[in-house]
TrEMBL record:
Signal peptide: none annotated. Gene3D superfamilies: 3.40.50.2300. Residues 4-120 form the Response regulatory domain. This is Response regulator transcription factor. It comes from Streptomyces mexicanus. Keywords: DNA-binding, Transcription, Transcription regulation. The lineage of its organism: Bacteria, Bacillati, Actinomycetota, Actinomycetes, Kitasatosporales. GO terms for molecular function: DNA binding. GO terms for biological process: phosphorelay signal transduction system; regulation of DNA-templated transcription. SMART domains: HTH_LUXR.
Length: 223
């Protein structure tokens, strides 16, 4: 039997794609909205069984305030966080706020669905490898790899970063060309170069990678 759920993410393209995929698997998706100030209120008013809440910065203070508010007003709603590879602080903060699970942004739809079903059943929905990775980082902080978002950002030109940002917003090639004042063929070339440099095969994968690594947020801070 399908789950009544909401998808809430600040990357509209990801939210809509995930909502569509879950609808195709028989679930009743109530809405796909951006987590602005009213996101928690929207979830509270619609009262789904499960809310998928996306975040690009799980370790930032206040990130999980919407979870706290949802659980206070609608304790029966299970919240599953969608985010980048979590730090120990990030994963701890999610569960401390009342989340029932944590799933990586680039998880396959089957994994997301498993997390939804576990959360609805009242179980903790987090992959063992995520917990192992988080505790591994906690125990061996000196062995952390280079920041992935920073590494990817160094590979892109400023114009390619702008193209990636527009791809993440769901703009097609024609719209990208019009808004950047370039020819559609040039825009297409930029998109292809971005996909090649990021090592992904589609615009959706590029948007997911940017969201998971916080690449675009870092670019904004540098600009």
């Amino acid at each position: 039997m399908g789950v009544r759920l909401m998808v809430v993410d600040d990357h509209r393209l990801l939210a809509e794609a995930l909502a569509s995929a879950l609808k195709l698997r028989g679930h009743r998706v109530l809405a796909a909205a951006a987590p602005a100030a009213g996101a928690a209120d929207l979830v509270i008013s619609r009262a789904p069984e499960v809310c998928l809440l996306g975040t690009a910065a799980p370790a930032e203070p206040g990130t999980f305030d919407p979870v706290v508010k949802i659980k206070r007003e609608r304790p029966q709603v299970a919240v599953v966080v969608l985010g980048p590879v979590p730090s120990p602080r990030g994963i701890a903060a999610a569960f401390a706020a009342g989340a029932s699970g944590y799933v990586r942004h680039d998880e396959r739809i089957e994994g997301v669905e498993r997390a939804i079903m576990k959360a609805r059943a009242g179980e903790a929905a987090v992959a063992p490898q995520l917990l192992q990775g988080a505790f591994g980082e906690l125990l061996n902080p000196a062995d952390q790899p280079d920041d992935e978002g920073q590494r990817l950002l160094r590979m892109l030109t400023p114009r390619e970063v702008e193209v990636l940002a527009r791809v993440a917003e769901g703009e097609d090639t024609r719209l990208i060309a019009a808004r950047m004042g370039i020819a559609p063929s040039t825009a297409r070339t930029h998109v292809q170069r971005v996909l090649m440099k990021l090592g992904v095969g589609s615009r959706l994968e590029a948007a997911a990678l940017a969201a998971r690594t916080g690449l675009l947020d870092r670019a904004g801070h540098q600009g």
